[in-house]
Amino acid sequence: MRKLACAYVRAVDGFNAGLGRLMIWGVFVMAGILLWSSASKAFFDPSLWTLEMAQFAMVAYYVLGGPYSIQMGANVRMDLFYAEWSHRKKAWVDAFTVLLLVFYIGVLIHGALNSTAYSLGYFGKNSYAFWWDLITAFVTGGPDAAKETMGYIERSPTAWRPYLWPIKAIMLFGFILMLLQTVSELIKDIARIKGEEI
């Protein structure tokens, strides 16, 4: 069991660390988009896509960088008492609070699944059935069969009118990675409670 837990922690931490280091460069992507927005307004015809694309880049930066932030302990926390505690006591408190975080991320994943299903044209109440049908159609019939499962694809109501499913899928993927990372943190906290390190 310990080998499996160590392999899980190494795999999740390694993937999220690599993705997090890549997402650090997202600040420059956002800055480039906003710089182009300013230049196009000053010297050319204003670009319709820049502000909304900057918002999408910010969402991707924040959500895909979140698991790395959790891994590095860079998230905001109240250090009034925590800094003075022993490693074991910190591990107990962290293990409890990680369970609360798992619940919260579970709610986010549920909402993201519903929102992404809506953006792919599903307007019913059971989005899980839609996802099952979509995956089954894709596996058995390929992309064309999956397209038949989808309805009217949601677009932004702005002048640019981009499809919204890609950013919603990125959010869903990021929330799943956050859940995997919180489980990794829980495994590390349980190991620290036992006096071990993973």
The number of domains: 1
Strand content: under 5%
Overall pLDDT, averaged? 90
Could you give the order of the helices and strands?
Answer: HHHHHHH
Head-to-tail CA distance between termini: 13 Å
Q: In oligomeric terms, what are we looking at?
A: single chain
Question: Total number of β-strand segments?
Answer: 0
Q: Kindly name the structural category.
A: mainly alpha
Q: How would you describe the shape?
A: globular
* Unreliable spans: none
Helix percent band = over 70%
Helical element count? 7
Radius of gyration: 21 Å
Largest beta-sheet details: none
Transmembrane segments: 12-36, 48-70, 91-113, 163-183
Membrane topology: Multi-pass membrane protein
Protein name: TRAP transporter small permease protein
Keywords: Cell inner membrane, Cell membrane, Membrane, Transmembrane, Transmembrane helix, Transport
